[in-house]
Amino acid sequence: MTIHTHQTAPTQFVEANGIRFAYRRFGKRGGVPLVFNQHFTGTIDHWDPAVTDGFAKDREVILFNNAGVSSSSGEVPTTFEKMGANAVAFIKALGLTKVDVLGFSISGFVAQEITLQAPDLVRRLVLVGTGPRGGEGMATRMPEAQQIFGATYDPPDEIWLSVHFTRSNASQAAGREFLKRFRRRTENRDPQVNEKVAPAQTEAIGKWGAPRESPFEYLKSIRQPTLVVNGGKDVIIYSVNSFILQQNLPNAQLILYPDASHGSQYQYPELFVAHVSMFLDA
Amino acid sequence: MTIHTHQTAPTQFVEANGIRFAYRRFGKRGGVPLVFNQHFTGTIDHWDPAVTDGFAKDREVILFNNAGVSSSSGEVPTTFEKMGANAVAFIKALGLTKVDVLGFSISGFVAQEITLQAPDLVRRLVLVGTGPRGGEGMATRMPEAQQIFGATYDPPDEIWLSVHFTRSNASQAAGREFLKRFRRRTENRDPQVNEKVAPAQTEAIGKWGAPRESPFEYLKSIRQPTLVVNGGKDVIIYSVNSFILQQNLPNAQLILYPDASHGSQYQYPELFVAHVSMFLDA
User: Fold this and answer.
1) Per the omega criterion (within 30 degrees of 0), is the bond before A155 cis?
2) Which of A19, A155, A166, B167 is least buried, going by the fewest C-beta atoms within 10 A?
3) d(Cα A69, Cα B249) in Å, to the nearest integer?
4) Residue A277 to residues A50, A268, A280, B202: CA-CA distances in angstroms?
5) What is the rounded CA–CA span in Å between residue A7 and residue A45?
6) Which residues of B touch A271 (CB under 8 A)?
7) How far is the CA of A57 from the CAs of A38, A68, A116, A234, in angstroms?
């Protein structure tokens, strides 16, 4: 039997909700798989192999594109509620009845929706670089994010140096190591998303982030043990939102990393895998 | 050679600054020792053996009474600056030139002072259940703390069930296990503090917690890698102060534990020792 890694795992497909979902599945079988939910305009290939292969040593890892993203068919819905429903359909289509769910950035919103909509499906929840409905500065892009997403980059994937890392020398050096790992897979790489993805996801972000009465009340319904992780200096979804998640979820641990922005898990991949593994195995 | 533990380590004494400091020292030698700084009115015997012996497997542990506390001579100063200076004198009197420092509750203030006054002495810093100068709700006792410290307990050490743990069944059950461990040492136990300790420490707390201009600016001078740990529901020093510490220290990681109050490290001793050990060994 071939032991697949982030580099070699083939892209597979499964149908559900009228959507053909692209996914990759690898790692040690037998336990509860960990399902990864990706950030704004990201695909299966936007994860860090140091993170995914790090987890794959001890558990099955499932990466997938939600509806309308890259090699998955369908369209990106304009609400996270519908993205969550699609993700639940995908997980069930694999025949799984219990998973751990990791959501990064806007797919931390998807991960919350999965847990709210299918509580029996989710054993433990990991929320990375994300926030609650109606969180601080989440209705529209904050000045730092406007600047970062408004600039041009050559090569284009250098945008992630600004999105995921702080401006410090140490963080940028970690970012360049991340980019090397990120680019390492060259065969059967997932295509970039089409031009309809960003507008649909942006519309959904506006609805999720909009201010409202008692915005954090819904978090009381998420009873799963939850680990909230972020950099202490996240300029995309402000770090205070991770604190708000921890304060309002009934059973949540919080970890904030030093001198780290939105992609703290790529700045400290070994530490992140160790912390999350301790949490998942508790 | 006898291998000592929390239960068996003899109380030793060392002179410095005209004070005879009581301390206990045990655990695996050869690395950087970890010096523990105790909470309000607490002594050497207020630490949890599950924590101290947990660390002692891999490093030397030093517990001590600062000036005027229990079996140490002298008087409790009415500023944390002076308590920090006494702690520095104690550490140097042991002939140590580099230590890791752990401070819990008001001795998290002492630990910050040690680091500010003797930066070359401190390798890494662990701040547990504590806050910055002029932190939120730190100038006077908040309503929860007034209620807890104003009540009577029989036996008296049951006060720690209210100080260190939340009111949930799970937290209180962990608290009763803590109390069993806490009471286990019966021989050569440290005496309770005299009646002058609480007023002096309380006066010092008032000065430390008082509001001021740019209260958190001084934290930029603490360059050591720092781990900030607390329960997410600390009612003695509000948990938001741990977030403030992380946000303002140049190189700090934050961990908040679920359903835990001031003594989260006694609710999750194995997890706490594992997290802190990962940090100290990084």
Assistant:
1) yes
2) A155
3) 39
4) 14, 14, 5, 41
5) 10
6) 278, 282
7) 21, 30, 29, 29
List pLDDT tens digits, range B76-110. 999 999 999 999 999 999 999 999 999 999 999 99
Can you point out the beta strands (E) in chain B? 12-16, 19-27, 34-37, 60-64, 99-104, 122-128, 226-231, 252-257
Which chain B residue's Cα is nearest to A276? B275
Cβ atoms within 10 Å, residue A15: 12
Q: Considering only the beta carbons, identify the residue of B253, B256, B257 that sits closest to A257.
A: B253
Q: Which residues contact residue B89 at a Cβ distance below 8 angstroms, ignoring those fewer than 6 apart? A: B16, B17, B19
Which residue's entry shows tokens 């998290």? B108
Which position has the token pair 């065969």? A187
DSSP B262: T
CB contact under 8 A, A253 and B250: no
Residue of chain A nearest B247, judged by CA positions: A232
Q: Residue by residue, what is the 3-state secondary structure of B89-124?
A: HHHHHCCCCCEEEEEECHHHHHHHHHHHHCHHHEEE
What tokens were used for B19? 């004070």
Average pLDDT, integer, range B245-268: 98
Q: What is the mean pLDDT of chain B?
A: 97
- The candidate with the shortest Cα–Cα distance to B12, out of B119, B90, B85, B98, is B90
CA dist., res. B31 & res. B42, Å (int): 27
Q: Half-sphere exposure of residue B44, counting CA atoms within 13 Å on the CB side? A: 31
C-alpha to C-alpha distance for A179 and A112, rounded to whole angstroms: 28
pLDDT in tens, chain A (282 residues): 568 999 999 999 999 999 999 999 999 999 999 999 999 999 999 999 999 999 999 999 999 999 999 999 999 999 999 999 999 999 999 999 999 999 999 999 999 999 999 999 999 999 999 999 999 999 888 999 999 999 999 999 999 999 999 999 999 999 999 999 999 999 999 999 999 999 999 999 999 999 999 999 999 999 999 999 999 999 999 999 999 999 999 999 999 999 999 999 999 999 999 999 999 999
Task: Report ipTM (2 d.p.).
Answer: 0.97
Distance CA A261, CA B195 (A): 48
Q: Which residues of A sit within 8 Å Cβ distance of B?
A: 225, 232, 239-240, 243, 246-247, 249-259, 271, 274-275, 278, 282
